[in-house]
Amino acid sequence: MSNRITLADVAKLAGVHPGTVSRALSGKTENQVNAATVRRVRRAAKQLGYMPNAMARGLRTRSSMTIGVIVPDLMNPIFPPMVRGIDSYLAPRGFSAFVVNTDGKDAAERTLFESLMERQVDGFIVATGHTDHVLMADALARGVLAVMVNREAHGVSFPSVTGDDARGIHEVVAHLSELGHRRILHLAGPRGFSTSEIRESAFQAACSQTGAAGRVVPTSSYSIDAGQSALDVVLDQGVDGFTAVVAANDLLALGAYHSLRMHGLDCPGDISVVGFNDMPFAGDFLPPMTTVRSPHFEMGVEAARLLLEQIASGQSSAVSVKLPVALVVRGSSGPARRRAIS
Amino acid sequence: MSNRITLADVAKLAGVHPGTVSRALSGKTENQVNAATVRRVRRAAKQLGYMPNAMARGLRTRSSMTIGVIVPDLMNPIFPPMVRGIDSYLAPRGFSAFVVNTDGKDAAERTLFESLMERQVDGFIVATGHTDHVLMADALARGVLAVMVNREAHGVSFPSVTGDDARGIHEVVAHLSELGHRRILHLAGPRGFSTSEIRESAFQAACSQTGAAGRVVPTSSYSIDAGQSALDVVLDQGVDGFTAVVAANDLLALGAYHSLRMHGLDCPGDISVVGFNDMPFAGDFLPPMTTVRSPHFEMGVEAARLLLEQIASGQSSAVSVKLPVALVVRGSSGPARRRAIS
DNA sequence: GTGAAAGCGCTAACAT
DNA sequence: ATGTTAGCGCTTTCAC
């Protein structure tokens, strides 16, 4: 694009050496130069409309002040708040977030990772990935600075920040139990994700703790369609007397809504449904969704904080932060009712 | 971060000059070099795990292969699809999108714009802004390449891509008219935005065309709260016999839902509500929302296409693309019914 | 307190 | 077909 004005131009106008202009404009080095000179340089810079060239600076300083943020898909409503959280922490500190979407594809993720490396990002915030996260494993080996958010990978010692999912699921099961539900179905997330695993085992634990009969049905992805077809299969079998569905996330719960509706079942009249995440607009659904609020914005903030801490210190810390979650009771959960299935 | 391997390292291993490595690896210049050499260089590069340094390359070539994307707020659900659309066009062409959020604040927008300029973006896609868009006006003066999406600015000759909003509003009013609505309220968007203006005047035109009585109530922002409080005011007045609300977007319509519910009114039984945009999950609301589908993803694609075209040609074209929209009838619009308001 | 000079890693004339 | 050279715009050590 345009803007051809360089340090040298400013230096010429101010009648000083380019090096001096650099120092005068820097902030960190501003005190190394005569106050009067600083003013003169500033005036010249403003007059010319000087803007530093971030690529030249970055090349010289080996730092881009940019953080690579890798998410599966911005269209999944939990990610925008997370990205905004990240940005809200980075921006005041002079960093920017560069966000890329993998669509859950490992190949794409690898390519995007490389491309962010080429852009010389100063670190990564990674919200994708399986428990067996090959990319992160060798990112670690390469000495890359990163923090994982919402997901964890086994045996990869990056710091991570997640919600206290197990706690959330326990609260859900307790809530359902109080409403009299004794047979509960868990629409589990897809295999190979830490979120799926943690929520599922918390579900099992909570059920045996409250004495409820828990059944787990896995889904193929965290999506409306996957939730719908998984529940369709169960409902079509026509057996089982469960009265409540605990979905591993809100999208799955929405899929459950659809399936129930298709089968002429009322929620929460016939079957209660509880989601997970409290995604935006969850309270506006039909029925308003009972779910667990995950602090996505705060997760982003915390991840950014952890990463900048690493960047400042130059070393990885491998801490793992677990943020509190909260059950939000709305209209999709109600008293258990005996029900006959065709 | 790590990765200290440069062209020179590869050159040494391959036993050739750095310049040759550059050519061998480039694609555009690959044919200028002996095929055997190319292979040797490639092997050396792979063996060392060489990655080009984008800052060094960009500094030299004066191009960052990056597009700055300025949106108000990624948490507004119309933007993620737009961003994905942009990215889907850019990525295969070697470009990346750098997205920033202004939160509707002019000062933030200016700062972010400068920061993207410093990063040497090759062009802008701008989804923010008033009809009186000061920033864009002087961006134009600076010779910056940009396209506006979803919004237009008066007297600023950047290309723009929008939905055919006027057409959409006409279809809404016709739909309502067929359902027997004769008195219709328009919850207009905030003043100073092209979307607000276009939808409002289309509403007026459509009403007089169908002979319906149209009343316009402006809102303070495109948000749920603004929609709710604007309708609250009308409903609290207790006069007026409108039977339908045409909201300038889905968020406003959702606010209308809330207001209606607070006033003990049923939608669509007492009052029909129609939104605009067909944001994600609009069909899952209570009631499922009748709205106009704006092709946000496609708008992103088109904007990216237009911008890359400008970049390739080096000149601005000032075309204005209007993409088709479609009325999506769901459950929030129904037959007009006589109604008594307290 | 400021000037001089080198160099970050790359590409693109220009030579050969 | 490949080597040489210069330089993109900046920061930073080293002089003075």
Brief account:
2 copies of one chain form a homodimer. The first copy, chain A, is α/β, with parallel strands linked by helices and 342 residues long.
* Strand line-up of the largest beta sheet of chain A: 2-1-3-4-5-11
User: Under the CATH scheme, which class of the domain at 165-294 in chain A?
Assistant: Alpha Beta
Give the CATH architecture of the domain at 165-294 in chain A: 3-Layer(aba) Sandwich
CATH topology of the domain at 165-294 in chain A: Rossmann fold
Helix percentage range of chain A? 40-55%
- The unreliable regions of chain A are none
Distance between the termini of chain A: 68 Å
Number of strands of chain A: 12
How big a fraction of the residues of chain A is strand?
A: 15-25%
CATH homologous superfamily title of the domain at 165-294 in chain A: Response regulator
Structural class of chain A: alpha/beta
Q: Can you walk through the features of this model?
A:
2 copies of one chain form a homodimer. By secondary structure, chain A is of the alpha/beta class. Among the domains of chain A are: 7-51, no CATH class; 165-294, Response regulator (Rossmann fold), CATH 3.40.50. Chain A is 43% helix and 15% strand. Chain A is built from 12 helices and 12 strands. In chain A, the strands form 3 sheets. In chain A, strands 2-1-3-4-5-11 form a 6-stranded parallel sheet, with helices on both faces. In chain A, strands 7-6-8-9 form a 4-stranded parallel sheet, with helices on both faces. A two-stranded antiparallel ribbon of chain A has the order 10-12. In chain A, helix 5 runs parallel beside helix 12 and helix 10 (224-237) packs across helix 11. At the A-B interface, helix 4, helix 5, strand 2 and helix 6 of A face helix 4, helix 5, strand 2 and helix 6 of B. The structure holds a DNA duplex (16 and 16 nucleotides).
